[in-house]
């Protein structure tokens, strides 16, 4: 027990800082990938064939590529080969490349989540809207999108949860975050290995479980009765 | 659903058709321009030079690096799939148990492993098992990858099992109990087989995730496909090309698996419609759709 306490003395500050890094990564990547995912979803449900084709190709390619490859790609290729510099600061640069990679990957999943939400709306709703004389925008705004958003809550929540957990994968791009720190900690304090793991795991349980509960609560509360 | 039309858009009239055509041409032009910029950028950086790609025409690159890497990826994925299925069924049925303590323990285990990132588990098992000499040091990356994948995906499968069984019409269990089966017998011989059919597409979707996540093994020095592609790339000065080849292999395998899942869900849905009317009472058509919505995870 005293060993565990000394562990906190030694690494407590670093652990909190590293975990804060993960939360920041998750936040920025979530905003960016939600926007990109929304654009992709609109492309995929639009009646314009070339837009649909681009959206479908993006989703099929990105969704089937491991995130580890995308992150490695960002660091080894964008930075290493093309000398991409998003920021003059060395660490901040990797951090931003990591956000970029996370956003690219999860946009495909957010796109599918939003599309799944739109698909939950029965065709009859749109037909009824047109029958009472609503045009495209009024129908979309008042009838279809409110129902679609409610249907998309669960898949969007699930994607958000995996995004939070996937921020650990940016360790492949040597960004300071908890999985890299955990490796250092276990190497230096092998006697506390299990407790180190449980501590880091608890960080994620504390963040992820409430998001899951909120998703379930919202999707039940806002469920469209059909 | 009319052909490729989404709920948001009405069938286009002649005027809209013309507008769509114009937007389509503009969209295609923008796409071609972006692709041109991409290839020009790659060409200017010297990434399209034949000598950077020719490495992959050598048999030795494949026989010494990429194919063994791919075999290791498939080996870890296959073993994890089997173990995750076992884990998933044990804890999924555990969550359905009528004994409170079994249910509580199963719930805690499943929720814990679902919330912890796979990579965190892999790094822990890798260093811990290796350091404690529980497995031979050269095997610890492999064991870590398999354990990490098993615990995470097993708990997702447990949720699939649970939602599959809970999605069944209540009458199925009642009928089982009415003919004198115990709850366990009814679960095993009536409910789980039906739930299994409904969850099959989602299950295959989960296999795609296992295969993709096995690439995390490269971080814990397991010499799978991405790891060997990195070796090839750094050895021959063509990291970009090596990563593209590795990504392409993953995409082809996963795309095939996803296509299988899609076909299977359509086949099962059509079989359900053609089946006996008695099978379609109440919510019987809803559960497959709900379970199918699940493979979005990760």
TrEMBL record, chain B:
GO biological process: amino acid transport
Membrane topology annotation: Multi-pass membrane protein
Main location: membrane
UniProt keyword annotations, A-Z: Cell membrane, Membrane, Transmembrane, Transmembrane helix, Transport
Gene3D superfamilies hit by this protein: MetI-like (1.10.3720.10)
Keyword Transport applies: yes
Keyword Ubl conjugation: no
GO molecular function list: transmembrane transporter activity
Stretches that traverse the bilayer: 20-39, 76-96, 108-129, 239-261
Disordered as annotated region, ranges: 278-298
A GO cellular component entry from the record: ATP-binding cassette (ABC) transporter complex
Limits of the ABC transmembrane type-1 domain: 70-261
UniProt subcellular location: Cell membrane
Matching SUPFAM superfamilies: MetI-like (SSF161098)
NCBIfam families cross-referenced by the UniProt entry: HEQRo_perm_3TM
Family, as annotated: Belongs to the binding-protein-dependent transport system permease family.
Name of the protein: Amino acid ABC transporter permease
Organism in which the protein naturally occurs: Galactobacter valiniphilus
Lineage, opening ranks: Bacteria, Bacillati, Actinomycetota, Actinomycetes, Micrococcales
